[in-house]
């Protein structure tokens, strides 16, 4: 037997003669969160056509492949579903808007906004990314929303407010760990408790927040009770 023509040698020789090659075509580009890099990166969305090669020359079509997402930084390929994950910038904006919406909903449910409630809410909203949020701004927003919708302060969570909460929280919930979802609920609970025990309307709003964050009812009850216990 000639050198290099054992079982492994034959495989190597064949692979040098026959193979496959993919010709990629760019279908679009943008920015995404790259799991490999661990941060926001540019990407190209690619679709490909595979061909058999003979001595490195494409000869016969083998079908289409893709689409795939290629990271411009690390060059790795991912399935198109990787684009469902928000970028870091988008995620931060979603979280900021969610906390802001929850704060307004709890304040509206609590009735006349006390200064302590407004201070607690403003602190939560600033921590979420609205650096210039003030107590007066939140109070004016709650009053404006009530005037615009005809909503009465302190009433249970109506359909309109429930829709607003779900619109802000539903897209965010799948991308948060359990502790992150619970943290948003607890922030709302602390706003409600800032001026005294929960009112029925505040509990109703917080239950809606928990449902939108996919927290089960028993865990919502447990978390609301825990928020009442001084640490």
Folded structure, characterized:
This protein is an alpha+beta fold. The protein is built from eight helices and four strands, in the order H-E-E-E-E-H-H-H-H-H-H-H. A four-stranded antiparallel sheet has the order 1-2-3-4. The longest helix has 22 residues, at 88-109. It is elongated, with a radius of gyration of 27 Å.
Give the topology:
Elements: H1 7-17, E1 18-34, E2 39-54, E3 57-71, E4 77-79, H2 88-109, H3 115-128, H4 135-149, H5 159-169, H6 178-193, H7 200-212, H8 217-228
Antiparallel strand pairs: 1-2, 2-3, 3-4
Helix pairs in contact: 2-3, 2-4, 2-5, 2-6, 2-7, 3-4, 3-6, 5-7, 6-7, 6-8, 7-8
Concise overview:
With about 230 residues, the chain is of the alpha+beta class. About 50% of the residues lie in helices and about 20% in strands. It has helices spanning about 5-15, 90-110, 115-130, 135-150, 160-170, 180-195, 200-210, 215-230; strands spanning about 20-35, 40-55, 55-70, 75-80.
Uncertain residue segments: 1-5
Radius of gyration: 27 Å
Terminal residue distance: 80 Å
The level of helicity is 40-55%
> By helix and strand content, what is the structural category?
alpha+beta
**What is the strand tally?**
4
Principal-axes geometry comes out as elongated
The run of helices and strands is HEEEEHHHHHHH
**Quick check: average pLDDT?**
84
Number of helices: 8
The proportion of residues in beta strands is 15-25%
The main sheet orders its strands as 1-2-3-4
């Amino acid at each position: 037997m000639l050198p290099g023509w054992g079982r492994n040698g034959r495989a190597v020789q064949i692979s040098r003669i026959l193979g496959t090659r993919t010709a990629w075509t760019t279908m679009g580009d943008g920015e995404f969160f790259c799991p490999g890099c661990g941060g926001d990166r540019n990407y190209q969305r690619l679709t490909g056509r595979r061909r058999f090669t003979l001595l490195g020359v494409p000869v016969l079509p083998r079908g289409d492949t893709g689409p795939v997402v290629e990271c411009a930084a690390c060059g790795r390929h991912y399935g198109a579903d990787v684009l469902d994950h928000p970028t870091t910038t988008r995620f931060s904006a979603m979280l900021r808007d969610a906390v802001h919406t929850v704060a307004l909903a709890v304040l509206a449910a609590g009735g006349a906004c006390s200064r302590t409630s407004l201070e607690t809410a403003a602190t939560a909203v600033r921590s979420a990314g609205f650096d210039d949020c003030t107590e007066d701004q939140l109070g004016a927003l709650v009053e404006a929303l009530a005037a615009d919708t005809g909503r009465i302060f302190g009433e249970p969570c109506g359909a309109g407010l429930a829709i607003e909460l779900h619109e802000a929280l539903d897209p965010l919930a799948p991308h948060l760990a359990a502790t992150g979802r619970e943290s948003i609920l607890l922030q709302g609970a602390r706003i409600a408790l800032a001026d005294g025990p929960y009112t029925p309307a505040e509990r109703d709003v917080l239950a809606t927040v928990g449902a939108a964050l996919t927290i089960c009812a028993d865990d919502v009850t447990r978390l609301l009770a825990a928020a009442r216990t001084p640490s």
